[in-house]
Amino acid sequence: MNRRDCSVALLVVALWGLNFPATAFALQQFPPILMAALRFTLIAIPALMFVPRPRVSWKLVVAIGATLGIVQFSFLYAGIAAGMPAGLASVVIQASAPLTIVFAAVGLRERLSPWQAVGVGVSVVGLAAVVLRQGMVSAVLPTILVLCGAAGWALGNVATRVAAASDAFRLTMWWSVVPPIPLALLSWAIEGSERIGASFATIVTPEAVLPVLGLLYVVGFSSVVAYALWASLLGRHPSSRVAPFSMLVPVVGMLSSWLVLGEVPHPFDLSAGALVIAGVLWASRSPGLPPSLAAVRP
Asked: Which residues in the chain land under pLDDT 50?
């Protein structure tokens, strides 16, 4: 990759890393499932109007939208809303990488190499350490919720692998059409009309400015702009060269959450997070890594 493309990759990393404190701000105004519904509604509108539909079956589009959109983001946002620090969430969600390898081995019969097995094992040790410490210092439920989001991401990666779309950006925009209505119904059923109404009733107050800006950032920069740039990189370079940059996202996520939200990371969490990232990087150096692992980020 030349300097220009490396700079683009680092810009995407920054946009995705800043997504986590922006999400934390947005969740101060909107309940988690409603926020996910709003995110995808705002993406689906321009997708339907301006983006050509990818040459992928509707069954796969729905499967990807259900896993990457509904499962991943409803659980991720619920975990952050329940108390998971945004910076730490940016690390825990990386569990999607080893889970993708395992799910691909089970569902697609892709051979799990010894190299990948070692990387998965190292990541699991790091994640277990995070869960253990969270259980000792606070409720473990937020961590479990984020891990469920990571599982949804991994299943979506496998479905993306099956789709094998030639244009990752078009596919991303179109699977975003799937989540809005199911998420809106889930929000109404779980979060309730009173809570939803209150979030909209106070949306024009001064206190809502940062949360609304956070939501707009997640939609405009973290989703549309970053995905478009990432897809352009994948179109010009092998995923094995692009994917390692994404491992810098948790670094930016933790650093920006520290600077913006005052979340001072515990040394134990930093060490456990380093294990997770090291395991993912180790596994990603195997030539058997599913390309979808590099194609979709939060």
From this structure: 288-296
